[in-house]
Structure formats: structure tokens, C-alpha cells
Design brief:
Number of domains: 1
Strand content: 15-25%
Strand order of the largest sheet: 1-2
Order of helices and strands: EEHHHEEH
CATH superfamily: Winged helix-like DNA-binding domain superfamily/Winged helix DNA-binding domain
CATH class: Mainly Alpha
Low-confidence stretches: none
Helix content: 55-70%
Structural class: alpha+beta
Oligomer: single chain
Radius of gyration: 18 Å
Amino acid sequence: MEIKYKIWLEKDGKVLFGRGRDDILTAIQEAHSLNAAAKKLQMSYRAAWGRLKASEERMGMKLVEIDATEKGMHLTARAQAIIDRFERLERDVEALLEEANREFKSLIEPKKK
């Protein structure tokens, strides 16, 4: 038995941020490139770009910046703060659900003799 969940942020019924956006931004931070990030995540460049741009527009802020001198891409400080907080939220929820899962198991599953 296992409790399932998904967490994402919405505004006006449209996704702002969730696990997929977190994965894209984290891959950009590691690879310094949207193209490399998309390849790492096995998605098209167009799909990754579309999700990134949609989140930026819906949030009203830039999440990535292009560094012309290093010819690379990096996250804005606010994007990194959003990732950090989102990942902390996921850890907190996972801990809560692990505890609830143990409690449900003791209530639902028969005791072994």
C-alpha cells in the first residue's frame, strides 16, 4: 500500500511550476544549456522551451539568463529560490505521507502471526 500525490503550483488553472519545470531548470543549471537540458530529460527542445517560456510569462519573471561571455545559460536567483522552496515542500510532504502511510498500513493490513 502506498499513498500517491503530485504537487504543482497553478494560477488561473494554468501550471506555473511543478516537478517537470523543476527538472528542466535543474538540468539547465547543470548543463548551462536548454538544448542539453532537453536532451538529458529526453524531451524536445521545443517542449522544454515552451514550458520554460510559459512559466516565465505566467509568473511575470525571468527564470533563466543567457550569459553572452560564457555562451551559456544560468538560473536567476529567484528561479533558484523557487526550486529550493519547491523541493523543500516536496520533502516535507513526503515525510508527512510516509508517516500517514505507516499509520494506514497498521489500520488496514492484517497483522502477521
